[in-house]
Write a structure and sequence with these properties.
- It is a single chain.
- This protein is an alpha/beta fold and about 160 residues long.
- The protein has 2 domains: about 70 residues, Transcription elongation factor, GreA/GreB, N-terminal domain (Helix Hairpins), CATH 1.10.287; about 80 residues, Transcription elongation factor, GreA/GreB, C-terminal domain (Chitinase A, domain 3).
- The protein is about 40% helix and about 25% strand.
- The strands form 2 sheets. The protein has a 5-stranded mixed β-sheet with strand order 5-4-3-7-6.
- Helix 1 packs antiparallel against helix 2.
- The radius of gyration is 22 Å and the shape is elongated.
- The two termini are about 30 Å apart.
Length: about 160
């Protein structure tokens, strides 16, 4: 079983989402299916087909969330060391070609938010950053070429 590391907040957010899907969305979909079934012949009932499709998608999402939560391991990002880049760290980078400073927070795959500069462990940047130290220089390949960065600082979130 492949574990997924989440902060306590991330874990609780996913639990709330799962609870909402089960307690609110599932009953709605079940009612939709029942109402569509009452419309008559199921072979030519587009409403019924759409409701069943919605139900299938919802159940799939519920199963995925249940699986994710079952594999989740909670870590306290306040205790993350700053000697190297780990999940939960904020990393200050210098683009060696443009002298632009960038900051990223390394997060799990469920908490990515590009607007907040939160990058996933599974992303090319995240995979490259893990285990690096202050002063390390590395390259990331993009569609337009390679970008070289230097790690200026590693901070707690």
């Amino acid at each position: 079983m492949k574990f997924i590391y989440l902060t306590k907040d991330e874990y609780q957010k996913l639990e709330r989402e799962l609870d909402h899907l089960k307690r609110v969305e599932r009953p709605k979909v079940i009612r939709s299916v029942a109402e569509a079934r009452e419309q008559g012949d199921l072979r030519e009932n587009a409403g019924y087909d759409a409701a069943k499709e919605d139900q299938s998608l919802l159940e799939s999402k519920i199963l995925k969330l249940e699986d994710l939560l079952a594999r989740a391991r909670i870590f306290d990002n306040k205790e993350v060391p700053t000697d190297k880049v780990y999940l939960g760290n904020k990393v200050v980078l210098l683009d060696l070609d443009t002298d632009e400073k960038l900051e990223y927070v390394l997060v799990s795959t469920t908490d990515v938010d590009f607007d907040m500069n939160m990058v996933s462990l599974g992303s090319p940047v995240g995979k490259t950053l893990v285990g690096k130290s202050v002063g390390d220089v590395f390259e990331i390949g993009t569609s337009t070429g390679k970008i070289r960065y230097k790690i200026l600082d590693i901070l707690k979130p």
